[in-house]
Amino acid sequence: MQLIFCALFNDQSFDKSTRVTRKILTNPKHVNYQSNSLRSPAKEKLIMFGLAGGDPRLSFKRTIAYGDLAIVYEKHEIMRPIIVTPNAELHNRFGVFMHNDWVGKPFGSRVLSVKGVQGYVYILAATPEIWTLCLQHRTQILYLADISLVIMYLEIVPGCLVLESGTGTGSLTTSIARSVAPNGHVHTFDFHEQRAQSARADFDKNGISNLVTVGVRDIQGEGFPDEFQAKVDSIFLDLPQPWCVVPSAAKMLKQDGVMCSFSPCIEQVQCTCEALASQFTEIRTFEILLRHYEILRDTGATSEMESGNSRKRKHDPSSVNDSIATTTTVFARPCRFAKGHTGYLTFARLKFKSS
Ligand SMILES: C[S@@+](CC[C@H](N)C(=O)[O-])C[C@H]1O[C@@H](n2cnc3c(N)ncnc32)[C@H](O)[C@@H]1O
After folding, report:
1. b/e for 178-187, b at 16 or more Cβ within 10 A?
2. Measured distance CA(195)–CA(78) in Å, rounded
3. CATH number of 69-126
4. Per residue in 142-167, pLDDT tens?
5. Within the chain, which residue ranges are assigned CATH 3.10.330.20?
6. CA nearest ligand 1 atom 2, residue
7. What distance in angstroms lies between residue 240's CA and the mean position of ligand 1's atoms?
């Protein structure tokens, strides 16, 4: 349990940030969007860790305060977003918890119930990874495996200007926002007024509204607004007929800009690739099939799934932590119910236009 938990909320590894910095320094297109603050190595490091400008709540604020969006973690399948509120109580099957008790503790803390069963939950920071797993769906959404590839192949780094349509539930937008922080921006468009409004409210709750602007617009009918012409680093489309938007995307992208289209059906991919052929190069389509593993523990008497024992979970004051007894064997096996096809991701780079 300890291992999985650490992996879950240690979302900003040094390695990852190092790679991002290398990109900023070697690719002039990304330096353009950095402010003058990219002068000293110390400042650079601050940007790398998301601490210079922007909202620290994005990932790096490590202490719980009133007004924070926090995730109450019971187990992988049960996570609940909550706003930390003075004198509020949380009731669940593990007892009654007081929000006041959490304030000042680091995110990731285990907190104890004050009434009812003597249970506990973990209070996690609402990172984009966790948010995607517990947000309220208003549409189909992109999940972590697809999101990861999108961020990497769209080359989204701090300072980028990104266009997206449709916004949907904002699952992908939240990750893009973190990647462009602290001084980049995402302009996301949906033609559904109510969805756009709900997405704005979610971005506000997540503390990223300074990084995201939600527009209401029929992108398939009208294309992206002219104001972005030749200014955009990356474009992402999750629309029923993405091929209609390819000419507009080509106009918006800067030299060397990259676009991606997510489509569930291969016929959509075919139409998109045909539309891309004249103005784009490096056209590639991927389908990601992720394999999950169950972590199990065998106590000798019975085998029990690690994540399935939380019904019996009680706080034992005599134990320092959740460590598994020395006689327990821990092993892993592929999950019986694997998530299959989500969609196809088609990437393409704008062809070089000689002037
Ligand atoms: C599947 S959802 C996008 C989900 C999003 N990628 C996420 O991760 O949450 C597709 C969205 O595209 C929007 N949409 C469909 N046609 C559109 C159009 N012509 N212009 C703008 N948005 C459109 C829909 O309203 C819907 O919200």
Report:
1. bbbbbbbbbb
2. 25
3. 3.10.330.20
4. 999 999 999 999 999 999 999 999 99
5. 69-126
6. 168
7. 8
